[in-house]
Design a protein that fits this description.
5% of the residues lie in helices and 42% in strands. It contains 1 helix and 9 strands; from the N terminus they run E-E-E-E-E-E-H-E-E-E. The protein starts with 8 loop residues before the first strand and ends in a 6-residue tail after the last strand.
């Protein structure tokens, strides 16, 4: 068993998940990128808008995330440097989110 951090916070809803800013014995896999998009009420890939340009009408498909100004959350996988087990992810705010770990 390897210690990954000394100060972390437990997730409110998922009690087996923790987050920390200062860690050790962790390797961030910067070559891999994971994305998470929030679930939507309706599965809607895009919306069509008609723009009139003189005599012709042009149909433009606009992605919903671009319209609302939201981007998908991007993460990098984190492995234990001792045993290479995937222990969590590293987000764009420089916060580690751990799972597959034991609280002590």
């Amino acid at each position: 068993m390897t210690v990954l951090c000394r100060d972390c916070q437990q997730h409110e809803s998922y009690h087996h998940q923790f987050r920390a800013m200062f860690v050790f014995s962790c390797l961030v896999q910067t070559t891999e990128t994971l994305t998470y998009q929030e679930k939507r009420e309706k599965k809607r890939r895009g919306s069509k808008q008609t723009v009139e340009n003189g005599d012709t009408a042009t149909t433009i498909t606009v992605q919903r995330d671009q319209v609302e100004g939201r981007a998908a959350d991007t993460y990098h996988p984190v492995n234990c440097s001792v045993c290479q087990t995937k222990v969590g992810v590293y987000d764009m705010d420089e916060v580690y989110h751990f799972f597959n770990v034991l609280a002590t």
